[in-house]
Amino acid sequence: MVITETTPGLNTTLLTSSTTISTACTFGASQNYASGTSLLDLGTPVFTISSDFNGDSYSDIAVANVAGSFAILLNDQTGGFPSYGMKYSTGSTLVSKPNSLTAEDFDKDGDMDIAIADLLSQKVSLFKNGGSGTFTAYPTSPAYTTAIGTTSIVAALLNSDSYPDLAVINPVGVAFTTGTVGVFINKADGTGAFNQQVEYQVGTLPYAVIAADINNDQKLDLIVTNVNVLTGSIGVLLGDGTGAFGIQTQYSVGSIPHYVTANDFNGDGYLDLAAANTGGSGSITVLLNKGDGTFTSGVDYPILAAPQQVISGDFNADGYVDLAVISTAPISIPPTTQVVGILAGNGDGTFQGQVTSVIGITPGSISLTKADFNKDGKVDVATTAADPLAPGVDVMLGQC
Question: What is the tally of structural domains in the chain?
C-alpha cells in the first residue's frame, strides 16, 4: 500500500475516538512565519508542503506564493522556523503565478528538489536543491509545457526506474478540449530532466491530483478531483507500472471538490478516499475501497463552511486515521476567519463530527500540511496564512 500526499493562546481541541471513552486532545498556539524576506516582501501564500530540505532529519516547509515566487522555511530543530523565509522567484508576477508545488529528489543526488505548477506560465518550473536547503533553477530549455491554469502537481514513482515522475492538472487540456492530467516521465539520467507530458482525459475542470496504489498491485494510480457545481466527482486512473494510465473511472462526490486524500480508514489494507467539497454548505465525502480498487457510494460529512484542502493522519494518537480540513468560517464568525477542522476516525471507515479551531484572520488560506516538526512523536500541522498583514504559514504543534 503506497501513498504519495501566531495567535497567542489558541487552543485546538478534537475528540479522541474510542469504543469506550472520548478524551480531549489539543494543538498548541498557532505561530505565524512569513513567506517573504522582509516586511516589504511578504509574498502571497497559496499552497504548502513539508519535507526535509537540508538533510538534518527535521521537516521544513515550502510555500508557493502566487506573486511569482516560492519560499523555504528551515526548521530550527525545535519545531520553530525563521521569522522570514528564503524566497525564490519563478518569474515576473505578470507571467508567473505558482499555485501548487511538490518535492522529490529528481536527480537522485540525495536532496529534495522542488517542482511548481504555475497558473499563468503554462509550464512546470523545476528547482534544484544545493544540499543545504538553497535552490537554483534547473535549465528552462526545453520548457515543460502545460495548459494555462494548471492548479496541482504531484511527484511520485510512476514507473519502475526509481526516478520520481510528475503529474499535473490541466483544467483544459493541451491536446484535448476537456480537462486532463498530464504525466511527465523522468528521463532517469541523473540530470533531473523530464520528457514532455502525455495527457489523459479526466472530467470537467479537474482541480487536484494525488498518486496512490488504489488496487494494491504495487503500481501507483492517479486520483483527480473534477470540479462541477452540481455533480462533482473523483476520477481514478489505474497505472500499469510503466508510467501509462487507463481510462478514468468516476465516483460522485459533493459540489466543487477541490482536494482529495487517500488512506486506509477502516483497517482492511486498502486505501480509501476523502474529498473536500467547497460548494453548497460544504462537506467531506468519504469513499471506502471495496478491496478491488473500486469504491462504495460516498458518505457525506458536513463541514463548517467552504472546505478547501483535506489531509489524513492519526492526529489524536488513538491508532485510527482522522481527517483534517482547512476552511473559511461562516459569516457568524467573520467570513475571512480560517479554521482547521478535525474529524476523528472511528477505525471502521466512519468519522465523528467536525471539531474546529479558529486560526486567525487569514482570507484565502486554502492549504495545510502535516509533519512532526519538533520530533516529539506527535503530529503537527501547518497552514497557509494569506492575511495581508501576516502572510506565510501558521504552525500548530500537536499535544497528543
Answer: 1
